[in-house]
Design a protein that fits this description.
Layout (H helix, E strand, L loop, with lengths): L1 E5 L20 E2 L2 E2 H11 L4 E6 L3 H7 L4 E2 L2 E7 L5 H12 L6 E5 L2 E3 L3 H11 L3 E7 L7 E2 L12 E2 L10 E9 L15 H11 L3 E5 L4 E3 L3 H13 L14 E2 L4 E3 L2 E2 L4 E2 L4 E3 L2 E2 L4 E2 L4 E3 L2 E2 L4 E2 L4 E3 L3 E2 L4 E2 L4 E3 L2 E2 L4
Parallel strand pairs: 1-4, 1-7, 4-6, 9-13, 15-18, 16-19, 17-20, 18-21, 19-22, 20-23, 21-24, 22-25, 23-26, 24-27, 25-28, 26-29
Antiparallel strand pairs: 2-3, 5-6, 7-12, 8-14, 9-12, 10-11
Helix pairs in contact: 3-5
């Protein structure tokens, strides 16, 4: 079973963390985001993942030189230029020689969705495409998907105006596709699977959906990057995960409350870290406070500084001693 994982984006919402590292290569506790996603696919029988790459493809290759991630074989498909979602799927599938039913997932979605259920339903109804749906409070940021009582998709409304969505069931970013879908995607231009390909399949009666209220989070924003990790240490997704890495150094007089402190990080005396993520090798100095924020790899929070309101420090960045930073990003980046 093969899957295409879309990981080619620039991750602009997570800058400055993504100025040096692709979003899917950011750490989630003790593993990269990509490893969590690929491991989940492996649990459902996927034995080959095709990475649809663009931005900083070298980082992926360097991290997995043996061409394997979480026990699953990796194939790399590097877009010569951004081709949007459908274009990326077509390019990756063709590069990997996919000529049978396959899976597509967004590489920044954390979910406990039963991919096997979607796969089986796809074959039961003889669909050309089957997509997973998840319920959300505000569907205006997503592709909204009304269906009939059997799960046949009646339309595909991408990011409707607030209050105008026909349903709150939205595209969860997991698809099962027949190879015939690839012929619907033009070569040599950007093509959106949500705005062009899926509506065309709906018109031909070939798009079906599976609704699921399983855990689902788009990990592409600073807040959700924090949330998915706090959920893991809180046991929201099953077993409680370790919040503080064995190699992290926490002073006896420091306070770490509901936060993740990764490998090699240091929290000095009098410092407080709360509802936050401290990445590998970072340092939170004496009497500093990190509250609801992200300290990037090898970054330093100076003594007495206070970070609040989703402040983010990038790789090696410094928050000066005594600074009061609320919702600030260092460096600001392009």
């Amino acid at each position: 079973m093969k899957a295409v994982v879309l990981v080619g984006g620039f991750g602009t919402r997570l800058r400055p963390l993504t100025l040096t590292t692709p979003k899917q290569m950011l750490p989630i506790l003790d593993r990269t985001m990509l490893e969590h996603v690929v491991a989940g696919l492996g649990d459902h029988g996927v034995d080959e993942v095709v990475l649809s790459l663009g931005y900083r493809e070298d980082v992926f290759r360097d991290a997995y030189p043996g061409g394997e991630c979480a026990g699953v074989s990796l194939t790399y498909a590097v877009e010569p230029e951004p081709l949007d979602t459908a274009g990326a799927v077509r390019f990756a599938a063709k590069a990997a020689g996919i000529d049978e039913t396959f899976i597509v997932v967004n590489g920044d979605v954390f979910t406990d969705l039963d991919v096997t259920e979607v796969w089986n339903r796809h074959h039961e109804v003889g669909a050309e495409c089957t997509i997973a749906l998840t319920p959300v409070d505000d569907p205006s940021r997503f592709g909204v998907v009304p269906t009939d009582e059997k799960g046949k998709v009646l339309g595909f409304v991408e990011k409707p105006r607030r209050g105008r969505a026909p349903t709150n069931w939205v595209n969860a970013g997991t698809y099962v596709l027949e190879p015939s879908v690839l012929r619907r995607i033009d070569v040599g231009r950007k093509v959106s699977i949500e705005r062009e390909t899926f509506p065309a399949v709906v018109a031909d009666g070939g798009l079906w959906a599976v609704q699921s209220d399983a855990y689902w989070v788009d990990a592409g924003t600073p807040q959700t990057y924090i949330d998915i990790q706090l959920d893991l240490i809180d046991g929201v997704r099953g077993a409680v995960h370790q919040a503080i890495a064995d190699s992290a150094k926490i002073a006896a007089e420091a306070k770490v409350d509901h936060a993740v402190v990764m490998a090699g990080a240091t929290i000095e005396a009098g410092a407080v870290v709360r509802d936050s993520i401290v990445l590998p090798g970072a340092r939170v100095a004496v009497n500093a406070v990190v509250d609801g924020s992200i300290v990037g790899p090898r970054a330093t929070v100076g003594s007495g500084a206070k970070l609040t309101g989703l402040t983010m420090l990038g790789d090696g960045a410094i928050a000066p001693a005594g600074a009061l930073l609320d919702g600030v990003r260092i460096p600001e980046g392009p």
